[in-house]
Amino acid sequence: MRLYDPHPPTLRALANTGIRLMLGVRDDQLRDLANCPDAATNWVRTNILQYPNVTFRYIAVGNEIDPESTLAPFVLPAIQNIYRAIRTAGRDSQIKVSTSIRTDLLERSYPPQSGVFKCSVNWYIRPIIEFLRDTQTTLLVNVYPYFAYLNDPKTINLSYALLQPNSGIIAGGVYYDNLYYAILDAVDAAMERILTAVPTLFSVLSDEEVKAGGSGNPGGTGSETGWPSKGGGQGRDYTTAAGDGPIHTVENARIYNNNLMRIVKSATPRRPGRPLETYIFAMYDENLKPGPAYERHFGIFLPNGQPKYQLRFR
């Protein structure tokens, strides 16, 4: 389960359930956490240590922070301070500290093995990746084949974006069963490229804080993905490239998320033998969320708790 910010009633409800949780740090807290180690210590004490019976898996320090925003310079120091507070509490072997990114930080994603970050974001992403390497933590990546299809419906096949079986393609001489694999591998290649291009500029940790064996590409973990069941608005044509119907349907959302259950049991071509991990966005429709209509219809449940469709977990 993923929570985007600490919510005490939900944290209390998760106690003794065994549900592994990714807990987010609100973006508006990044500045204080970066500038004040004591603030990070207090955050960990209040939101982690007060819930000893909750199984925390990740702390996501910031979600999809734009490298051009005023918050961007605070992400890495906030990660460092939260990590050190977790380490001081003796929980660093259980809880990983990272941040989540959008895939539009990539300059190139096709073919996946040619994935590379935009030069303009290297100052931001590179030291974060070096930190993740040193602490043996993965980068959290929000992977949305839906948006890839929405932005390029003439090139991307809808079945490929919906992760349908037997809809794969050959990309750069490698067979890709679905677009989710291709996007995640493009990020993986970009991470590897940024780490091997030149020697490390600096270590984000002291020598004694770097864990033994903390080297190589830390890889990426899918931290959210999904498909909306309804859409439209803002003057856009949200039908398929062939013009044979809308792409925002309950059936397409059901197909995508059930296929997701299937593909995460396997591995991507770049990471054979390593099953994937991801989080379905979202549990409930966000019926009050601003923006395009599709933003309010990613939930697998309606706001009243009624399920939209059946998920197949096996």
From TrEMBL:
| GO BP annotations listed | carbohydrate metabolic process
Query: Tell me, what is one Gene Ontology molecular-function annotation carried by this entry?
Result: hydrolase activity, hydrolyzing O-glycosyl compounds
Gly residues compositional bias: what residue ranges?
213-235
Q: Which Pfam families match?
A: Glyco_hydro_17
* Region (Disordered) location: 212-244
Sorted alphabetically, which keywords does the UniProt record give?
A: Glycosidase, Hydrolase
Concerning its family, UniProt says: Belongs to the glycosyl hydrolase 17 family.
Name of protein? Glucan endo-1,3-beta-D-glucosidase
Please tell me the species this chain comes from.
Answer: Salvia splendens
